[in-house]
Specification:
The protein is mainly α. Helices cover 74% and strands 2% of the residues. The chain is globular, with a radius of gyration of 18 Å. It is a multi-pass membrane protein.
């Protein structure tokens, strides 16, 4: 990212902060009209600097190798399919895999913010999954917060010389779970319990989500590792261009 691009991202971040960010809480695939307007607007503003950074990240990656657009498209399709397979959970939301860990590992979390936004728009319009008014909140949780954790876990495992497929599994698994932790926080802030307030509400949401989300997160980790194995077999040169194969363990 050039100095001018970093300046633009910084300005956007300052704008978001000055607007008045809520505490770090977010939601994923919350249905249309479920969040109060102030939450919808606030989370949309919070997403702006991340999306700008994502645009520059994708532009830089593709300008270096146009062939990588096929891998990027595959990452988007993977996220679209996995996150469309939903199981009803807490009122106003649902449990499902996210599919964003793969993109975070290959392209970095910034690029996934754009990919995730596109996925969420198509799901809201074509599948009535999520919503346009809640797009900002859903984008932050699935396309920003979760991928950041996935990327951080993968890089940490890389430094600790954890075997590659184990690193991929942990990154996808924990990124998925983190999405639902922040989903619970978001819902608890928007709808605190009448008896116990935010803390009581958060505990209830976390407990309910855990029953369905932990098994789904395990499945996502396994599927993501399998996809990586496939890419290493059929798209090794593209993975090399992305720097994925550099200095990795078997």
């Amino acid at each position: 990212m050039t100095k001018s691009q970093r300046t633009i991202v910084l300005i956007a971040a300052v704008f978001a902060l000055s607007f008045g960010i809520l505490p770090a809480a977010n939601a994923m695939h919350i249905m249309e009209g479920y969040l109060p307007a102030k939450f919808c607007i606030a989370w949309g503003v919070v997403c702006v600097p991340f999306l700008i950074a994502g645009f520059f990240s994708i532009k830089k990656t593709l300008s270096g190798n146009r062939k990588l657009i096929m891998i990027l498209a595959m990452v988007g399709a993977y996220a679209f399919v996995l996150s469309s397979l939903k199981i009803p959970s807490v009122t106003g939301s649902c449990s499902h895999m996210t599919g964003t860990g793969l993109g975070a590992i290959l392209f970095g979390p910034a690029a996934v913010s754009i990919v995730g936004l596109i996925v969420l728009v198509f799901q809201a319009i074509l599948l009535a999954h999520g919503g346009l008014t809640t797009l900002g909140a859903n984008t932050f949780s699935m396309a920003i917060a979760g991928p950041l954790v996935s990327y951080g876990i993968y890089k940490l495992c890389n430094k600790l010389k954890v075997p590659k497929l184990v690193s991929v599994f942990l990154a996808a698994f924990l990124g998925d779970l983190f999405t639902y932790v922040v989903t619970s926080v978001q819902l608890a802030i928007a709808y605190p319990s009448a008896d116990g307030g935010f803390g009581a509400s958060l505990g209830k949401f976390l407990a309910i989500f855990a029953a369905t989300q932990i098994p789904l997160a395990i499945i996502e980790g396994i599927l993501t590792a399998i996809v990586i194995i496939g890419l290493e077999s059929y798209a090794k040169s593209e993975l090399s261009d992305l720097g994925f194969l550099r200095g990795r363990n078997a």
